[in-house]
Amino acid sequence: MLVQEGKAKIYVKNGVFYNPRMQFCRDADIAVFSCMGGHEYLDALAATGIRGLRACIEADFTAFFNDANPKAVALIEKNLKLNNLECKVFRRDAASLMRERSFEHIDIDPFGSPAEFIDAACSSTKRYLSVTATDTAALCGSATVSGLRKYSSYAEKTEFYPEVGIRMLAGKIAGEATKYDKAMEVLVSWAKEHYYRIHVTFRRSPKRAGGIYDKLGYLYYCRKCMRREWRAMDGCSVERCRCGERYTMMGPLWLGELKSRNFLEKVIGKSEGKVKNMFTRIAGEIDVPFYYDIHAFAKKMSISSPSINRIIEELRAMGYSASRTAFSGTGFKTDADSSEIVSILRTL
Known about the structure:
Number of strands: 15
Structural class: alpha/beta
CATH class of the largest domain: Alpha Beta
Order of helices and strands: EEHEHEHEHEHEHHHEEHEEEHHEHHEEH
Number of helices: 14
Radius of gyration: 21 Å
Helix content: 25-40%
Largest sheet: 7 strands, mixed
């Protein structure tokens, strides 16, 4: 069957994975790629090759393709001819290939968890790394043991689990990269439906890599009053909340920024439609970890959920930073304590 996606045409066939539901993600990727400048790019788990093909055609990348499945390799070569492209195609175990040589930009988009490829990718990449994760249960706290096994991080399910998941994934990447004296910066990331997606860049510097641990640490969450605190890995731990309840400690997690504002402004300029709307929401979000959910407060206080915009207005009037969040339509971010939010809700 012939499929048109973006400016690329591909054949799809049984035995080679192609997910049309991920077109939105690939559309968003092309906007991101277009702001990186044309460069060498490895589609490490390429399947049909659709993302790498679009990177070549729509973002002027020089792509390499890899897949361990011989059916996928044959299909990629067929799809390259269909689009009048000549690119190197490997039939290799992705981790083994990345251990043997370097690439300027590596893209890891597996069927499931990317965890087994992250170390090799951090070792191999010269500048950029893009990662997709669909093992959301392991990342969001629904499957705690799985999260520990794959990402060496502990999490429990919370009302703001999408952000916990993306911060667990970012933390895994940042920590692995420091072994190779690489300091990570997140360019843009998002959580949507059944997957997480993150684009990062690296700078090689032992000093900067050591400084990354100022942005890795632990979340302390109180299920009773929904207060949350966080500490860097070199900070002291906190056992109990101010309300007296014992904290749930999660991590290590990435506590730094989940986007580069300067980079994101360029991406928005290259975007349109629903993709532009998503990136605009991300750009409007303040850089404070861990959003609040208005429904969780309403349930805890046995009240009707008020307008999020009204809460944000009240918080700003009190001198706090506040914004909506791209993670949830019922969520908002603020640097105010949960007790301040409760006080506002009691007056509305």
